[in-house]
Each structure stands twice: as structure tokens, then as C-alpha cells.
Amino acid sequence: MSSAATSPAGRDHLWSVEEHLEDILATVRPLDPIELQLLDAQGCVLVDDVTVPVSLPPFDNSSMDGYAVRVADVAGASEEFPAVLDVVGDVAAGAAHLTPVGPGQAARIMTGAPLPPGAETVVPVEWTDGGLGEGPVGGMRARSLAPEGATGQVRVYRPAEARAHVRAAGSDVQAGDRALDAGTVLGPPQIALLAAIGRGTVRVRPRPRVVVLSTGSELVQPGEGLGSGQIYDSNSFALTAAARDAGAIAYRVGAVVDDAETLRTTIEDQLIRADLLVTTGGVSVGAYDVVKEALAHVGDAEEPGSGVDFRKLAMQPGKPQGFGSIGPDHTPLLALPGNPVSSYVSFELFVRPAIRTLMGLADVHRPTTRAVLKADEALSSPKGRRQFLRGAYADGEVTPVGGSGSHLVAALAQADALIVVPEDVVGVEPGTEVEVVLLG
Length: 440
Prior knowledge:
alpha/beta; seven-stranded mixed beta sheet; five-stranded mixed beta sheet; 9 helices; 29 strands; 19% helix; disordered N terminus
């Protein structure tokens, strides 16, 4: 952490959003690379460039079910005057032994099968009589039901140009080409490419394991009955889902009561499966805000560099924040406020970049844009605070959703953007261009 976090003056310092984020990103480091099987690497970030060891496709092959022929043998073919060719056999996908196609000959060929020697083009089966002598057909008969289809004669009713319906060797990628760049997130298409070039494993940075804990004796798990003064725990669900959306493997821990020893024990138990810990609630200045008390001695906090610093940020919502590292492995921990909107906005601004940094991504931030404010009245904002208002963005315009209250979960569910009002701005008129953070 920065020196401001460890000095008495630092504890009274009103941190800017940038200072807090810079401190986090200066501390969090990408996870060490590991070799994983392809399906286990889904969602992970590639560490090294991958080059193609063999061209794709590795051989000329047919893109249609039909007949491999010589161009001259079907030139001028029509329904009135079909080209009549001798069928010399079948060429199926995966065939190792290929019968050459000579003048006046054709080989029945399947999609993906290699083009046999001597053949110059492929005639789709729909341009032929399929060997039945009864005019154009719609497809081939199954070999198991009609093995004679691989012999006899076939009538071709249309000519074909050279290399028609032929996938050329190397037409996808060629040996020596770069298949994927380091830093690529491996999704289904990238995994397909790796498999296609023969890679069974790949070197990646693993998806970070994020543990989310919510705190508060008033919290009840969804599905249970509410007692007097109780509310449902939504934060842990929201933040766990957000961590997964960011690319992490996220674990949700049920709400912990307002007891420092219970919280401390719970956090220590979770360290074994966490690359990053996120708490929500208990970071303000109330008598029951126990996160500060609990984190004073979590794990091996006496290790040099360990400990959690609690701060006030010049932002709304989300003024109280905590950040540091705990335990023998100096596991990063971000302590977020307990109000639902405050915790979610804090996640987007601070936790998501930390997760993306652990993954080894170069760009860790949500995209931003400029948009015209569409509103019935001016927006107000406290001087000296950077305000983040929920908004709906479309076609270069952004409309505020809900009020500025940090408890308005329903409005948050309708938002796909954050409207940013700078610290030195106390009012924004409709029609003004504003900065927008895109969440979708």
C-alpha cells in the first residue's frame, strides 16, 4: 500500500478515486501462469503467443457431398447432354488411401474428405443423378443401404470450374502463422482454434478466486422469512455475480453477524481459497461497524506490509472504503460499504479492475464515452465529491435512472451506465455532455 495508508496523516486524508484505485493496482499483481487443459482454460488469459504448427485445413478437401472429377470431363454438361462418368469408389472424411481419378472417371466424395489425386473440382450431388439414372437427386443414399453407389456410372448435368467446392490447404491458417496473441481471453472460438491446431494444453493465468462476504446482523438469506428489522442479503449475491461477470471464480459466503471474532474467524477460514477477498458492510463509523475491528488482527497481520487501511474517498456513493492485504500470502482485501448501490458502484470502480489485473489483462477498466444528458431537470451534486449516478444509455444519450439514494436497488437493476459528475461540478443541466461509464 502507499505511504499515505500507513501514516497518521494518511488516515485523515480524503482520497480521490484515482488515488485509491492507483494504490490498489500498484499492490495487486497478475497471478502466476499455469498449464491447463483446453476446457479448463476457458475464460483465462493466454500468457504466450500461439503459432500454427500445421496448416488448416492440412489438405485440399471437399466442401460438399458430391463427386470429385476432372474439369474437362464435365465441360458443357447439361440435363439434355449429361456427362457420363465411371465411379471408381468412395472418398470419406478421414480416408487414408485415395483412388486416383483419371479421364472419364469420378469418385464419390463426402464433405471434409480429401480431394483424390487427379481430381480438379467437385460437383455437388444435386447436380447429378446420384448414379440412379433417374434425373437430378437431392442427396446420396447411405452406403450401408446401397453400397453399389460407389460403383457404376453417374450422370453430371452441370459443368464445374476448377477448384469449385474445394477448400484449399492452408486457406484458414498456414503453418507458422500467429494463431492467438498473448493476452487473449480464451472463449469458445479460441479454444476451438487451439484444438484444431492440435494443442491439448495451453499456458494461461488462472481465473482469480474471489471470496465475497457480507456483514450485518440484520441480513437474512433469500428464501427465509423476514423478522422485525431484517432485510434480505442482496449485496453478496450482486457482488458474487459481478465477480463472475468480470472473469473470476467467485464464492459467496453467507452474511456474517456483527461480531468481530466471528467475522475474523470466517475470513481466516476463507483465505485458503481466495486470491482476493471482498467484504461489504461494516466500514463506516457506527458502533456496530465491526469490519475495522475484525481486520485489525486477521491472519498474520504482523507480517511486514500486511494490514487493511480504512479511508474516506471524495466520491458519492461509496465514501467509506477499505483496502489492504491479509494473511501469510498477503491476500488482497477490499472492504466495501454496505448500502447496495454504494457496494456495487465501488465494485465497478475498484474490485473489477483488481480482478482483471489478477487475470493479467492489459485493459482492466470499463469502457467510457461521452453522452448528452437527457433529463427533466438539472442534476445536483455535492461539491468536492465525484458523483456516480445510475443511468440508461442509448444512441449517444443517457437518462438518469432513480434518485441518488444508495439504497435504491430497483433503480440499479434498470441501469446500464454510470453518469460521472466531477468533483468541481455541483449541477448539470439537461442537454449537457457528460462522461458515462458503460456497464453492459
